[in-house]
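Question (not urgent): is this output format expected?
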Amino acid sequence: MKLDDGRDEYQPPKSGLLLLQFCIVLLFALFCARFWYLQIHRGADYVRMAQENRLRHERIYAPRGEIYDAAGRLIAENRTAYGLALVREYCPDISAALAQVSAWTGVPLERIRSRYEQDRSKGRSFDPILVLTDMPFEQVAPIEAELYKWPGLRVVSHSRRFYPEGEAFSHILGYVAEASEKELADDSGLTLGDMVGRQGLESVYEKRLRGQKGLYRLEVDVLGRPLSRTLMESPHMGQNITLSIDTRLQKAVMEAMGDYSGSVVVMDPDSGRLLALVTRPAYDNNIFIGGLSARDWKALRDNPRFPLQNRAIQSAYPPGSVWKLMMAGMLLEHGISPQEKVFCPGWYKLGNHTFRCWRAGGHGMVDMQNSLVWSCDVYYYSMAVKLGINTMEPFARACGYGRETGIDLPYETSGLVPSRAWKKRRFSEAWQMGDTVNASIGQGHVLVTPLQTAVVLSALVNGGDLLKPQLLADAPREVTGRIPVGEASREWIKKAMVRTVEGAGATAKVLKRDDMRIGGKTGTAQVVKLRMKGDRRLKSAEMEFRQRDHAWIGSWGEKDGRRVVVVTMVEHGGGGGAVAGPVTKAVYEILFPLEAEETAER
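Got this back:
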């Protein structure tokens, strides 16, 4: 008897089969959707990414524009330099790579690591970091032969700035240095390792001097090694510029200054072009190019003679008696007769205070011309009390004092022309008549720069135009204002300046020459209160160096139809004519004989 267990009639549930079929179809649909997304929707992006893995771009450094002097001599040039760059993205062991660079070059590992750490945060992982900026050419070939063992390291060539004249132009040219993190963020045209102007004309004309980079396209293998290179964009060198300053004159003026601290400005009064702009002491701007150590920077910064200071535009001093030229113009324009006389006994009494003249015995009866020739202080004390600071202050400002000249150099100071409002704001004190007396001879709170004085003197000579001082040879004549001194008054002042050089008892007689016409005005600016020994004023040699007076001479000269303005300021030089005079005389002897020789040669 056969038992029936019902198996022949068993049917599996159809719902399970349908579920399985659905899952298979769904999975297949998902794969299809994903394939569509990758191949169709994102296909172009992945093709581009694949291309980028195979193709890379490399920027080509563009040379900076070069700078020439007035005679066409190079004073800022580019030299080819070799360095070692590290690309973090392709370097499997950065520490080992840095150690190998040290082994190859002999440069201490700490210095290489310090540079790497300094720059690593500035760029992206695929940006090359220059761990060595200046490698001797003899090391290049041996290192390149070993680079295949060190992925991520490569030799790069770039232009390196060099200043052949060093100190002679350091305050004018400034220097370049590697772009900071902030500069990289602010300027899309900069990349890691780029050099930018830091001071002087390198900074002011950064956009003109900076070149336009080129671009290479590299095809690389799976290890990142280049297989081929295609030039996509050619680099373009920056714009060259030519200065109005002649190297030979600049260096000769520096030599004339010797070891003195101070400044000399030589200016063409008719065009505004600067022929020399000297500051002593100076520094060698080449030391900044490869990077300055913290110790060297501290030594330079803390130098008690402040070699980083551009004294022609960044240092403001009491002008002393050079200020009397402006005062004479003010007196003439306000109706004071040149024949009006003041008695100078050697002192001037104001209330219970006595203001002394530089000449203890006094000058006797003094008119306006002799007040300049003999540089009598009492004459100006008396006239200042008559006219007051409310007349003096706006007149001085109209002459160009108390504001920047506009020269194309950074950090120019405006000096100071004090006023009642200024003293109230600065010291919370009322202006006193004694302040007016001090200001009348360029003392007290009055501060000017050597360049401002050159601009004012140029206006006296050129017909009254206040000109922007120009450093570029092709710069146009740019008038920034008019000096408030009429033609008759200007001519009178110029004749008085000639008498100050040629007349009896003249304070600027050191400048006198038979072959040319020179006008001048000396100035002795007190640094501290007048030092006395009994009734006798201490001489400069008897005082501590930093307590000695500053020495000034403002002058102009003309010969063979050409005119120049020369302003000399010597810090703590003592009497103006005795110290600044010989320096200024040397400048005239350098300048005009040089022209005569060149004319004879032509």
